């Protein structure tokens, strides 16, 4: 499939299928992740399900629109540059099909079992699998062809955030219990009575905050994936950022500045490819397509990122490398408004269709007692803060992991006990998601490529 010619009927059909897959994946993301935002507000009957989902979808949209795209491209940069943009200009169909097929299948399987699994883990595992599959395809040393520094950075954020969610939500719950004397906050919801007005307002507020922060982080992930697909479909229009009109002469100047740094340091065996891109890009008179220019920019980006993360480079060289990367990124890393809106719509529609399974698990399955409004509010407020902070620092985190660990933290703080069976199922999904998606994605990519 790597030999599919650009603009051929086969490549266009394959890319359209990939575009549908990424939309379906984000729809399935709504089953899992956005359902966490509406779980307590629906479970306590503070809002009717349809109202809660529509409101959550609107707040996700606002979060996507205001959240930037740093998380989107933090994930994209997990891929080697020759996979991200093949040097011959061919569409990256094997990468897209392996990525979306693997993540979507695992997401649907865990949703069907009612397990609050992480869509972020699915996506990141599939991306790592593609990078590993590409290493085997080109007979590269695995330790030197995958940007492990970027991968560890992403995985650290995924590992630390649930621990923080567990501890901070438990502490916040204890503070609420010590300072607020409202019995309705600490009583499991009665399905026959309307919630207390204070409880209702509080949980609507927490639903709003989690939905907004989810859009600012998880919504960005689908933005990056959608962009990969539409760039393959319409490279002439989307390979380079039309809103950042940087000409070939400017890119040539940046490439020339980057050449001595890339030539001096090489951690991942990409130096030769990066230097070839420097030579091609530094000569504006050479006619090339927008896809080739995009590929060259990513090769040079990969080279200067290696320098910025290389301990052997001096402080001044690392600073220079980061500045060069920041000048290159706007030309290839962007997202049109319609892509952001499409991402938010897929999230919202998915939540509307599949929220019930996850809501029941969070409300009744994590603790031995049913969730109280104070526990839901504490876990969601902490979750919103952690997710929003990560979104604006460019680190992808899992809404599912943070909220479920936060609920568990409040159960422990309240002495409610933990439902070992449910938590063991969730933990098993957490532990197996990365290995399964890495292996499946690597095999799919290798076979199709």
Automatic annotation (TrEMBL):
Annotated TM spans: 12-31, 52-75, 95-115, 122-139, 151-176, 337-355, 402-420, 427-448
Task: Name the chemical reaction catalysed here.
Answer: phosphate(in) + H(+)(in) = phosphate(out) + H(+)(out)
Q: Which domain of life is it from?
A: Bacteria
- Matching Pfam families: PHO4
Q: Which cellular compartments is it found in?
A: Cell membrane; Membrane
The protein's topology relative to the membrane is: Multi-pass membrane protein
Ordered alphabetically, the record's keywords are: Cell membrane, Membrane, Phosphate transport, Symport, Transmembrane, Transmembrane helix, Transport
Q: What is its main location?
A: membrane
Q: Which family does it belong to?
A: Belongs to the inorganic phosphate transporter (PiT) (TC 2.A.20) family. Pit subfamily.
Question: What is this protein called in UniProt?
Answer: Phosphate transporter
